[in-house]
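Handout, page 2. Input:
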Amino acid sequence: MSKKVIFRIVISLLLLAVLASSAQATSADEWIRKYGRSKLSKTTDVYNQMGRYVTTLPAGTFVCRWATYGDIVIIDFLYSDGTEGSGRVPVSAVRSAVVAFIDDKGISNGFQELDFFDKVRSGEIDPSGYKFTQEYSYLNDVYNTPWASGASTPTQSPATEKPSSPTATKKPSTTKKPSTSSTKKPSSSATKKPSASSSSSSASRPTATPKPVKSTVMYQSMAAQIDVLSSYESQITVNGKKLTVLTSELEFESSAKETERLAVIYTPKTGEATMREKANQNAKMVKKCKGGRYALVLEKKSGFTKIYYNNAVGYIRTSSLKFYPIAKEPYAEGLLSLNGYTNGHAEINVRNKAEHGTHICGAYRTGTAVRVIEIGKTWTEVEIDRIRGFIQTKFLTMPE
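Output:
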């Protein structure tokens, strides 16, 4: 090996050492302030160029946006250990982290978000002299700065947008009349048969009084419509009145085992399954069942299972269900959080399966209360509103 080659190798090693030391000297805060000109608006899965899953980044993560291809953005980001990563995310998940504003002289300007608020806190900038667009109203929650939404839109502050309770905005639609499920079938069965015959034949034949048809679901011997079904407590409508009752107090005819009276629609790839009139793949469709939602099990078989779902009865593939017992005791409650904080506009995904890239049953803001079924090292099984699924354990805060 020549001296020239050895010299080049030594120089290369020295350069690598210098680069490594400079990379270690750059803190995450310095990286964000220098490169974090964008941030994620929601919890987002990151994939590499080959379409393979890389990681999941929470809402509010600062990223470096360096290329856009159609609906895809290529970003750089920091892992929690300070190392840098890259991948692609949807355009809709990325927003500017540069606070744009017009000062009191009418001059447009902008600051990197963290630098701007440093100047506000130090007194270098008086925020009352700036007008912000509605795009930056989310800063109210992050920095507790009521002026960030701008004088032109005072009614749009997040204080008016926040629900009074975690489930206030997630309640089911009440457009259906409570008596629909309990009266439609009996009335149709009672009138269709007599009307099928002619007037003369109906006059000559005695008309039998139809027997009352029992509703699929009853509560204290009264027909009930289920508005929100969950493992321990459910919300129902009985005779026009809305009640919250124990799920174990609901009456329904089932041949399933006690440990399999409840089911959750399990479709981690597609997000929905088809309910049919009969236990046959070619039978007429009744409706689509959404992944993560509960159903009552009426009859379980290997191929198809008969269920009560969203005030309808039908058959669904047994492989599209996960079975559970009706809970006898309430679950402990926790709060969705981001880096330990339970305020803000960050949204946490609830997945149908404890695995990245699977169907997202719902997304809820930090601070939302969830019922905690089982805590794992990486994933935790939770129940929220009418959904049962999984969140990453790092996004859960339990009360002390």
